[in-house]
Amino acid sequence: MSTQTPPAEQVGTESDDSHSLVRSKARYGDALFSGISSGSALMIFVILAAVATFLTSQALPAMTSEPDHTGLSEVSALGGFWQWALPLAFGTVWSAVLAMLMAVPLAVGIALYLSHYAPRRVARIFGYLIDLLAAVPSVVFGLWGLMVLAPTLHPFYKWLNETMSWFPLFNAWQAREDGELRPVLAVGGQNMLTAAMVLALMITPIITALSREVFLQTPLLHEEASLALGATRWEMVKQAVLPFSRPGIISACMLGLGRALGETMAVAMILPGKVLVTFKLLTYNNPNTIAAYIAQNFPESEGFGKMQLIAAGLILFIITLVVNMIARGIIASRREFSGAN
């Protein structure tokens, strides 16, 4: 029995056709995936542009018009939009900076302990707890800060005011007309320092979780090489872990800062803020934040007053955008510096 083999040209044609079919299917899949990815990325810019357009169109009349009785009463009392908005912007940045000063060292220390010092079982348990703490709603933090933290810290605030009033941040005394000093300590501990502590507790899990993941990505060979050269555990962390993780730590801190800048309910529940500029932390005359002020006044506002609140939201939008742009610039410069070395 003889077997008939097809001509060489026919074999080559069939194999080429089957190969071309496989490649064409792969190309269709690549094109579809590329289109979905590009469309999703483009959608981010579309949404961002839509939000910016809405805020700008609603905010420009409030920013350029003279204050009148149709707007917010505090804007008219202070003499103009910018005299009202700039103190709110100051309060927003001031509370976020205080929260970052307290949260960043604590979060980075916890992340280092969980990634390089704690036993694996302990690190796993605490890692779950930190992830769970990051998911707690802000209103729960606000209630806890108002009902538990503020009254607990009030005696400590009184001690600070009495013994460390020489330090401007802890000075809660005010001179009366007759020259006598009277305390202006916030009742029940509801002051800027308490609000900053609550914000710090809210952003600590976020910074900790991201920093821990970045620390775990440090190449093991770098760590072993440092230890082999006689470095201690802490020296190894300084030489290998922290330099490698610096861009990730900055990204985690900027994400936490964005959360602190935009936080609304926790600050609104704790802080009886006013539209003023002051660095004192213990008095009842606390600067308010933009997000908290909008949440407190938006339901009752209407017409031109609502436009003024939207204009304040535009200022918060710009502050957050600038902070993120600065963070991206720092990260990019660090990466270029690392690559050059």
CATH T-level topology: MetI-like fold
Mean pLDDT: 84
User: How many strands appear in the DSSP assignment?
Assistant: 2
Beginning-to-end CA distance, first to last residue: 73 Å
Largest sheet: spatial strand order = 1-2
- Helix tally equals 11
Q: Biggest β-sheet, characterized?
A: 2 strands, antiparallel
Strand residue percentage = under 5%
SS-based structural class? mainly alpha
SSE sequence, one letter per element: HHHHHEEHHHHHH
Morphology call:
globular
Tally of individual domains? 1
Looking at this structure, what is the CATH superfamily?
MetI-like
The unreliable regions are none
| Structural Rg | 28 Å
Helix content range:
over 70%
| CATH class designation | Mainly Alpha
Judging by the overall fold, what is the CATH architecture?
Orthogonal Bundle
What does this 3D model show about the protein?
- There is one protein chain.
- With 341 residues, the chain is mostly helical.
- It has a single domain (76-340), classed as MetI-like fold (Orthogonal Bundle), CATH 1.10.3720.
- Helices cover 75% and strands 2% of the residues.
- The protein has eleven helices and two strands, in the order αααααββαααααα.
- The chain has helices at 8-64, 73-78, 81-117, 120-134, 138-163, 192-216, 220-228, 233-262, 265-270, 290-297, 304-340, and strands spanning 173-175, 181-183.
- Strands 1-2 form a two-stranded antiparallel sheet.
- A hairpin with a 5-residue loop joins strand 1 and strand 2.
